[in-house]
Amino acid sequence: MIVKVSNLRNAVAAGAGMSFLDTAYETNHEMDDALLDVAEKLFRHIGHQKTAIEDIAAEFGRSHASVCRFFPTRSSINHRVYARWALKELDLRDQDAGSITLALAMLANVLTRLNHRARARVVCHPNEHSLWMAAAREDWPVHHAYFQSLATGFAALVGRDADMQHLPDHALTKMAKGVVTAMLAYLHPVLVEQRMNSEKDADADLAAHIGFVLKALNLSCLAEAPTR
């Protein structure tokens, strides 16, 4: 089926209100964004573990106390930068989906690109990958929210397929959560790094796994079809 794709993040927001990720990143003062710009720059340059509030204050040209007015702890800065990066990733997911017209082909494209970007972070942006790893290992709420947002977007995408439009929302949600679970080894930063250390042909393995997931979606669709 050929479909027109609206922004998935907007579709999620329309259905469920502002997401936790949006709330985590929401800024009430232009100073928030300016400080986060500085924190993000330092995180990418020297890493989040080596960046202190004093470093951010010095780079920004303000006192430690003025930075603490907006971000009282290092953890609050870490979580806000992660939320910013995760929201950008969701925006890229929308772009990836919009580049193809077939619903399940869009899903395959999004899953492929998400994995490629996760792998690129490991190799090309290790300090950024380090923050994603910390969020996963320390079980941050914003990390959960990112994967929940992925599942919600996947449900909206799968629901546009002609063979699945008869399914109720709860069935699409269940299927989308299954996609996230099935793809976790290719999306979770810790597991992505582990796979990169053991795989011989990452792209072929990814393509085969995505093919399996798409086939499982079609089988699930038949199982959920109403009896007549």
UniProtKB/TrEMBL annotation:
Domain of life, per lineage: Bacteria
Listed Pfam families: TetR_C_27 (PF17935)
Domain Tetracyclin repressor-like C-terminal intervals: 107-204
Name listed for the protein in its UniProt record: AcrR family transcriptional regulator
